[in-house]
Amino acid sequence: MVCPHCQGAERVFSNSWAQGELKQYYKKGASKSTQVLIDVLKENKIEGLSLLDIGGGIGAVQHGLITAGVNNTVDVDASAAYLQIAQAEAEKLGYADKASYIQGDFVQVAPEIESADIVTLDRVVCCYPDMQALVELSAQRAKQFYALVYPRDNILMKIGFHIFNFFAFKLSSNPFRTYIHPTQEVDAIVQSNGLKQIFHKKVGLWQVFVYKR
Predict the structure, then answer these.
(1) How many domains are there within the chain?
(2) Of the candidates 82, 86, 67, 38, which has an alpha carbon nearest to the alpha carbon of residue 201?
(3) CATH for 166
(4) 202 has which bridge partners?
(5) Which residue range is the domain that position 196 belongs to?
(6) Taking the model in full, what pTM does it have?
(7) Mean pLDDT score of the chain, rounded to an integer?
(8) Are strands 206-212 and 142-151 parallel, antiparallel or unpaired?
(9) What percent of the chain has pLDDT over 70?
(10) pLDDT digit string (tens) for 94-119?
């Protein structure tokens, strides 16, 4: 089934967008919130573990964790442009033989996705309308660690996202939207799947959560 939201995401996260993000990565490295997520996971014993990176973008989490000893990675993303760049970077960094890539809406392709020791969703929850399905299905596939970066949940952020959606997407008839999902609801779904929160930090407009089974 075709997902209008995913089609809209493909328009937003185009090759030009992805290339711009890659240039920023070369210039400044991973974003602050992404780097916090990577650093927290690196503090744990992750050598030899597997990674499932949902909505992996240009592959910043994959690059950061593979150098810390992660054994193999799977990247699931709705954007073909992101996947192409992530794969090209993996080849440059010498771990292409340990990486695989799947294009599609994770919720729809989840039955085909195997569990991994580490599951990450870096700035993905805010880009998906059905938070419950996304978090539920991804948390189920985390054998040891589950890590997320998503927006802080407050009234100012909600107003800001509403305005942003109107001018960035609604006016151009793009079905893609960004979302402020309730933090307590996200946390409850994760913990109901047997994962315990071991880290939480607010980083600018974002918040980083790491859980352990």
Answers:
(1) 1
(2) 38
(3) 3.40.50.150
(4) 207
(5) 4-212
(6) 0.94
(7) 94
(8) antiparallel
(9) 96
(10) 999 999 999 999 999 999 999 999 99
